[in-house]
Amino acid sequence: MHVEVYGLSKRFGNFEAAKQINFGIEQGKLIGLLGPSGSGKTTVLRMLSGLEHPDSGDILFHGVRVNEQSPQARGIGFVFQNYALFRHMTVYDNIAFGLTVQRKSKVVIRERVTELIELTGLKGMEKRLPHQLSGGQRQRVAFARALAPEPQLLLLDEPFAAIDAKVRKELRAWLKETIHRVGITSIFVTHDQEEAVEVADEIIIMNQGKVEQQGTPIEIYQNPHSAFVASFVGESTVLDPFAGLHGFEDPLPQSKALIRPEYVEIGLEKELAIPHAAERGIVRDVQFRGANWLVIVEVGTHLLSGYRSHEKPLLKLGDDVHVLIHRIYTFNEQQAELRENRLKFDPMPVYI
Amino acid sequence: MSENVDRQKHLSEGPWAKGILIGIALLFLLLILVLPLFTVFMQAFRKGVEVYFAAITQSDARSAIKLTLIAAGIAVPLNLMFGFAAAWAITRFRFKGKNLLITLIDLPFAVSPVIAGLIFVLLFGARGMFGPWLADHDIKIIFAMPGIVLATIFVTFPFVARELIPIMQNQGTLEEEAAASMGANGWTILRRVTLPNIKWGLLYGVILCNARAMGEFGAVSVVSGHIRGETNTLPLHVEILYNEYQFAASFAVASLLVLLALVTLLVKSILEWKQKQVLSQGQGE
Amino acid sequence: MFRTLKERSILPGFGLSMGFVLLYLGLIVLFPLTGIVLKTFELTWGEFWQIFTNPRVLAAFKVSFMTSLIAAFVNACFGLLVAWVLVRYRFVGKRWIDGLIDLPFALPTAVAGISLTAIYSQNGFIGGILQSFGIKGAYSQLGITIALIFIGLPFVVRTVQPVLQELEREVEEASAILGARRWGTFRSVIFPEIMPSLLTGFALAFARGIGEYGSVVFISGNMPMKTEVVPLLIMTKLEQYDYAGATAIAFVLLLVSFFLLFIINYFQWRISKRVSAM
Questions:
Q1: How many whole angstroms separate alpha carbon B7 and alpha carbon B11?
Q2: Residue C27 falls within a domain, yes or no?
Q3: What's the pTM value of the predicted model, to 2 decimals?
Q4: Residue C9 and residue C14: Cα distance in Å, rounded?
Q5: How far, in Å, CA of C29 to CA of B157, rounded?
Q6: Which residue, A36, B163, C137, C220, could crosslink C127 as a Cys pair with Cβ 3.0–4.6 Å?
Q7: Is residue C135 part of a domain?
Q8: Which chains touch A (3 or more CB pairs under 8 A)?
Q9: DSSP, residue by residue, A79-147
């Protein structure tokens, strides 16, 4: 285990930023620390780097406790949200900084910096100053600078927050690929669940200073351990209170249900594979979503939403439709459950 | 900007280093700033309280006070109008030569006060360009009030402008443009949109301008002719007393100016604090 | 004419404000200053050269430059220290001290002059101490320098302070994480960032120093060739009705001042260019 954290806690004045945080990260993994603002994720990152001192708890790198180590000594690379590039230094000098501090020879520095400039696609920009670069370029310089001294761990604080939406997608893919290529254990903080799901090998979801769940994106998505995780990742409609649906009779007492639109099939009777497992509903709204239609149906007293492909005939307001819900996520104070639609497996007996 | 003060152990100087740095800085300031301040009052009261009060209520001193007040009373409002007009033109419009204009406004800061006085002597003095013409019409500028006022205006006109320009620059033109697009005319915009926003900065500029106007020495010294009771401002009166070896009296009068300076500093601090409040409230919205 | 000078704006008052500004500047600044230029050009080149190369005049310039330079340098060092301490540390009375920095700005120069003379003259508090070491306080170039240190301090502190205040905390953190210790971070990261503002403050203090009159006239003793500075020399010549001489010297002083002003504005432009692009 490369990075381990036990009982990590930190408060600022009256605000508890981190409460008894535990997690472990294996060597070489790319971890997304995901959560809403104020969830404590940046605080955890800063404590790992030594920029903040935990009130209690232990931080171990390869089994060795590093709480007392200064940030200078921890061998960590850190990419700040606003890059924090050295304004008066060229791209080359920025990247070379960590090596210069270590008093490496000029030859070694030149080799390493050139290597990184190639890696980050910054060739030709060595002599430029930060204010002459675009946002994406600055981010890559920050990245190269952090990697130059060959750190054991790479930390990134909301690396894409300050970037244009269009460039963001490309940069995400590039970051993921580059980090995997270099093979360095990395943790990046983000509040964008789409980003975390796309980029990370594993996600640690935090909320209000606590770790809610740790797992691969698929695990988190398909098997959320708490209501918060279920609603934070992916889209969903919440039914509160939940009294049961066709195929989901016998709900948990005093529970709510969370339904993802991708698990809802809306259509005419002949379009559904298992129409008897479906509810009946009336179309209340049809919204164009580019790649498909978002259809909002009224089922009983609930409003559910689902996607509908352009290949299928158009639905209109007021249409009578069948709504097949494949699975729901249901939870109350004590329990949380992912339930499949029972009627999908218990076909109505066919009476000959 | 978050607290600059509470920093982590490895991100700031150790407590020993801090202590030494603070110590040296304070010692330096004590020597350079506090000591002179102290000295004025010490020397002023050296011959006792009676001599002190006699000095500041003596008739020449009173004339000097009156003259200082009049000079400032004319210079400051004029400079206020100028400062506002300049800030308005510079921050609300785009035009060529703006940088040149700003440099021109900074000019008095770069010019020695003696030169400031000299230029008016060259124009209006007995042997100056307009000297003969003025003599013919029996108008006295140099060695009289008008000269003092002119020199004072020259030396202090940048203050209000320099205060207002950054403030009005920061605020941007959105509010005023919104008002204009709703049909408000110039004066209405000024009165109801611009002035309320800049009032603290404006006041601050005025206070500073006033302090310099009342305390100006070099430029006024050149144009005044040092005629006691007539063309002596307070600072000049201090000089005259000093040159006559009436040290205690000189420092007594000087102490009045020190009090003025201290009050100016106090008001400045309060106004800065108020301006910060306005700014942070605006950002909080 | 104004319409072609500016782009269209919906805000009113351009004509009025610009008109007033130009009138004011013209009357108060440009017109009088051209007086000096004209008067100077009344002299022949030979006469001008004679005035300027007079040993007393040259000595005065030397004294002015040396004392201003040293004072500005001292202010640069200690001013930086003071600004640092005010921005970074907490201590008792910090608010008061911060306010006090502007004292030389708000205090009439004459008052500063007589007060400093009292302190540094032979029977003064510090003057006495210096005397026992055989050093002259007042009525020497040291006295002038000290007066100029007093005058120039706020220029450095107030120019550097805001820049220090705005320094991104993260840049220092980045430096620390990359392995630099405190002094290394200061030297490689912090100092270069504040260098332009420090230079600006230095230039401002220097410019102020060479033109300073009120605080210097009392403490210098005004000895020609020794402790006479250029503004004092100009004043003396005026009192002797040597208008030509006074004007010529003033003209040169003016040129130096403008040159410094130009440099200062250049630095400020450089700073703003780098900052705004980020």
A1: 6
A2: no
A3: 0.83
A4: 9
A5: 10
A6: C137
A7: yes
A8: B, C
A9: E-TT----TTS-HHHHHHHHHHHTT--HHHHHHHHHHHHHHTT-TT-TT--GGGS-HHHHHHHHHHHHH
The answer to whether position C35 is within a domain reads no
What range does the domain containing C56 cover? 44-273
Q: What is the spatial distance between Cα A281 and Cα A239, in angstroms, rounded to a whole number?
A: 16
Indicate the number of domains in chain C. 1
Residue of B1, B3, B11, B13 to mutate, interface with A, max A Cβ within 10 Å: B11
Q: Which of B12, B17, B127 sits opposite C243 (nearest CB)?
A: B127
Q: Which chains touch C (3 or more CB pairs under 8 A)?
A: A, B
The separation between CA C85 and the C-alpha centre of its own chain, rounded to angstroms, equals 22
Residue-wise pLDDT tens digits, C63-102: 999 999 999 999 999 999 999 999 999 888 888 898 899 8
Instruction: Flag if B10 and A52 touch (Cβ within 8 Å).
Output: no
Contact C87, C158 (CB under 8 A): no
Report the CATH number that the domain containing residue C95 is assigned in CATH.
1.10.3720.10
pLDDT in tens, chain B (285 residues): 334 445 566 778 888 889 999 999 999 999 999 999 999 998 888 888 888 888 888 888 888 899 899 999 999 999 999 998 898 888 888 888 887 888 788 888 778 899 988 888 888 887 777 888 888 888 888 888 888 999 999 999 888 888 888 888 877 778 888 888 888 777 787 778 888 888 888 888 898 899 989 999 999 988 887 666 678 889 999 998 998 988 888 999 999 999 999 999 998 888 877 777 777 776 544
Amino acid, single-letter form, for residue B119: I
CA dist B217 and B212 (Å) reads 9
Residue C233 lies in a domain: yes
Q: For residue B234, what are the CA distances in angstroms to B98, B258, C106, C224? A: 37, 11, 15, 28
CB A329 within 8 A of CB A259: yes
